[in-house]
Amino acid sequence: MRIEPLVVIAALLSTTTAFAGDVRVPSLPQTVIGAWAPSADACVGSGPGKIDIAAKQHSDPEASCTIAWITVTASREGPVYSARSVCTRTRTGMKEDPSYLVVTPLASDRLLVRVADNSADGKFVTYQKCP
Is residue 106 part of a domain? Predict the structure, then answer.
């Protein structure tokens, strides 16, 4: 009977430590702020895939988004910034459902960005910083 309390305590400790790496921050760091694109050609004008990231906002040719909150999670590649945003369509002015911008800064002005959709299986693409 004495083993049961130890099992319960061990289960509770293992559950809480799984989330210990998640931290809320007030804004995106300087390392991700700027204009980013999947290629140098896309950096020109409002090229395909280009995104502009500020401390509390991000935009692309289709929408402008205000960040509601940011969570940072540790990973092998470095910190993963997940920003929950409310976006407004550029052409119509209509607000969209909340979306997420998920980025990981890499070395040499590179940024790993989850693109296409908000599903768990979204693809990550390496972006480069635009001049």
Answer: yes
Residue 48, in any domain of the structure:
yes
**How many angstroms separate the CA atoms of 33 and 47, rounded?**
18
Is residue 2 situated within a structural domain?
no
For residues 122 and 102, is the Cβ–Cβ distance under 8 A?
A: yes
Both tokens of 103, joined, read 């980025």
Q: In the prediction, which pLDDT does 56 show?
A: 97
Q: How many domains does the chain have?
A: 1
- What does the block give as tokens for 68? 């509601």
Asked, for residue 13, whether it belongs to a domain, the answer is: no
Question: pLDDT band at residue 124, thresholds of 50, 70 and 90?
Answer: confident
Residue at token pair 């509390």: 56
**DSSP track, 14-38:** HHHHTTTT-EEESS--GGG-EEEES
Nearest to 38 by CA among 123, 120, 110, 103: 110
Res 42 pLDDT > 50: yes
pTM higher than 0.85, yes or no?
no
Q: Which range of residues forms the domain containing residue 90?
A: 21-129
CA neighbours closer than 13 Å in the CB half-sphere of residue 30: 0
